[in-house]
Amino acid sequence: MGHVNLPASKRNGRQWRLLDIVSAAFFGLVLLFFLLVFTRLGDSLAASGRQTLLLSNADPGQRQRIMELVEAGQKQAIEACPAEAVDHMPCEDPRRNSQLSREMNYYRERHCPLPYETPLCLIPPPDGYKIPVQWPESLHKIWHSNMPHNKIADRKGHQGWMKQEGPHFIFPGGGTMFPDGAVQYIEKLGQYIPTKGGILRTALDMGCGVASFGGYMLAEDILTVSFAPRDSHKAQIQFALERGVPAFVAMLGTRKLPFPAFSFDLVHCSRCLIPFTAYNATYFIEVDRLLRPGGFLVISGPPVQWPKQDKEWADLQSVARALCYELIAVDGNTVIWKKPVGDSCLPNQNEFGLELCNESDDPNRAWYVKLNRCVSRTSSAKDEFAVGTIPKWPDRLAKAPPRAGVVKNGLDVFNADSRRWERRVAYYKKSLKLKLGTPAVRNVMDMNAFFGGFAAAIKSDPVWVMNVVPSHKPSTLAAIYDRGLIGVYHDWCEPFSTYPRSYDFIHVSGIESLVNYPGSDKSRCNLVDLMVEMDRFLRPEGTVVIRDNPEAIERVSRIARAIRWTATVHEKEPGSQGREKILVATKNFWKLP
């Protein structure tokens, strides 16, 4: 076929139209690239795709049928989640939550999907995952392949946070406000506050980074709860837990933190950037609720004597004065205050309108409770749990605290509970040959802690224990803190605020009570969901110990097989009352094909 000869003008017009189309397509692709990478549109689309992937097996009807088959022992194994889900946290998904309000950082708080929206699958380990480096070596180095997230190392390496060396991440012990190391920083604080001698035991580190402060406070026998949100750094709490340092994901936003009142002997902020005086000092009021009478508040970094933040620094001092905090020192960009032990000096004239809460206010209520706009009252027993009055560590561990009275005959129940757990833990170690006390176990969780008797019984082991008090049970968490232990409130019908593969050892006494209504056999949520969640934050080759009645243990055994645990059932220890059996399970180290 011959060529058609077009006039030159038409030929040029066609060429220009083709060039226009190519150019427009090119610039359109460039624009789309910038939208996806640098705007929330990219996050939204990525979140949509990720949610589609994770929800692909979450059809409510199919999901319910699978759970029924698992409970009946008729389904061999629950499927693995896709590889993209290796770090999935159902309640702290930054892309999902990015669509929520920014006001008071609401979007960075817990926002859990409904059960039927949660995929019924097992979170796989990342490619190249290895059994974690053991404590105490893990404080200084971890496997890079276990969490290959380089953003913090790239951005904060010059400040001593962490750096990559060969197959490891190395942690020199620094931080933004202590680039020369946490040890020197803690020594400086020791000039002003009693970091030695057992006077201080429980601490809260807000916006903790990779938790080097908390890690090195352990040398002083001070047990620090470190928290930070899941944010642009992505993995700071994940790094802390991999190092063997107590930590969990949280955000000081619109709700109270999940701790009882007057829990911490020391509250610490090193460049945490919390606007303490915003919203009529609401965040300072929350810190005051958590700080024990006579306790110390340390703030390093902005706005303390910080350039161009004179007003913020003046406001911070004004709030502290309004609450009658004693100024201990201002050392460079670090300020240290001491909370008064006596009655609050409120009401007084102050520019923030600070007032005491009503006497009906319960300052210990903190599970999905909005932040107070009033200052919590200390109880009539405040002198008994104030810093300097409460027994020193370790004596306080065994002494029944006044706040054990939250349950009937609390002091007697406390002492009986302590004796019971001493006997049980001895049986665990001697007869069941559990790994407690060995280098294989560092991060421990007690999912139904009551008075913390299990944690107290393993006090000589090189471990720390996250004592969880279910939110629908008596509020015994305050007594746990008075003992010098740590923990949080939680409802086990929701996922826990931690990363996958966080804990070496999980203990739970009375697992059915976590999913049932109080005093009833009726379920609030499903046991299969709970055990899949336990599997999410249990490390490969980690151990689970579950105590309950024989019928419950039989249910648990069937579910354990479906989630790839190897389980054995044992009789309870001699001398124990009640109908109990003990299931001991190990999470198998499986990988995606």
Précis, in short:
This protein has 593 residues and is of the alpha/beta class. The chain is built from 17 helices and 17 strands. The N terminus is likely disordered.
Features:
593 residues; alpha/beta; Rossmann fold; seven-stranded mixed beta sheet; Put_SAM_MeTrfase; membrane; methyltransferase; signal-anchor
Radius of gyration: 27 Å
- End-to-end Cα distance, whole Å, is 56 Å
Strand arrangement across the biggest beta sheet: 6-5-4-7-8-10-9
Q: Determine the oligomeric state from the structure.
A: single chain
Q: How many runs of DSSP E, i.e. beta strands?
A: 17
User: What is the CATH top level name of one domain?
Assistant: Alpha Beta
- Major β-sheet, in short? 7 strands, mixed
What topology emerges from the helices and strands here?
Layout: H1 8-38, H2 40-54, H3 60-71, H4 94-97, E1 141-143, H5 151-156, E2 163-165, E3 168-170, H6 182-189, E4 202-206, H7 212-217, E5 223-228, H8 236-242, E6 247-249, E7 264-270, H9 278-290, E8 291-300, H10 310-322, E9 326-331, E10 334-338, H11 395-398, H12 410-430, E11 443-446, H13 453-457, E12 464-470, H14 477-482, E13 486-490, E14 503-509, H15 512-515, H16 527-537, E15 538-548, H17 550-562, E16 565-571, E17 581-587
Parallel strand pairs: 4-5, 4-7, 5-6, 7-8, 11-12, 11-14, 12-13, 14-15
Antiparallel strand pairs: 1-3, 2-3, 8-10, 9-10, 15-17, 16-17
